[in-house]
Write a structure and sequence with these properties.
Layout lengths: L1 H15 L16 H4 L1 E8 L8 E10 L5 E9 L4 E11 L7 E6 L3 E10 L5 E5 L6 E5 L6 H13 L8 E2 L3
Antiparallel strand pairs: 1-2, 1-8, 1-9, 2-3, 3-4, 4-5, 5-6, 6-7, 7-8
Length: 171
């Protein structure tokens, strides 16, 4: 019985353990947090437990006095037929001129948050966790231009993300 439980725990650990880490060189630098604040819409994501059954997800970022970033995430849970909201703080993991951060929500949720690519006007961004298990494409608009989409998909594929599993929100 103990052997079966141990094997089950080992299997669960394997499933939950990040498969491939994102190289430090993949994170955007320089990053300008002042340009990043404002409202963003989720365009695409790799499926994940936190956002299961959610659609119309937005993140609104604002600067806090301590230099961190406040985030309010809003979405609609179509299974429960109701809107949901979570507030959190994004803290930089090192210099605030580098797009490597961690998001801490009021729920017991901590997410690694890496900006892998962002256009010069800060209208479109490619975001990941610390592994190839989590990926998002976000935009200030409800879609992204084809050239930016191809650029982000190419970069994600080069980093080892399975872009065939992306869920497109507005397609």
């Amino acid at each position: 019985m103990a052997l079966a439980a141990g094997a089950g725990l080992a299997g669960l650990a394997y499933i939950l353990w990040p498969k491939k880490r994102i190289p430090a060189s993949a994170v955007v630098e320089p990053f300008h947090k002042e340009k990043y604040v404002g409202l963003w819409q989720e365009i695409a994501r790799l499926p994940n437990r936190v956002e299961k059954n959610l659609k119309n997800l937005t993140d609104e970022y604002s600067l806090k006095e301590d230099g961190n970033i406040k985030v309010i995430t809003r979405a609609y849970n179509f299974e429960k037929n109701k809107p949901v909201e979570a507030e959190g703080t994004i803290k930089f993991a090192g210099r605030d001129t580098r797009g490597k951060m961690r998001a801490f929500y009021t729920l017991p949720i901590r997410l690694d948050y890496n900006i892998l690519d962002i256009d010069a006007t800060y209208r479109y961004a490619l975001i990941s966790g610390n592994s190839t298990d989590h990926l998002w494409i976000i935009s200030r608009e409800s879609n992204i231009p084809v050239d930016i989409r191809h650029r982000f998909l190419s970069k994600a594929a080069d980093l080892g993300f399975d872009i065939t599993k992306l869920e497109w929100m507005n397609v």
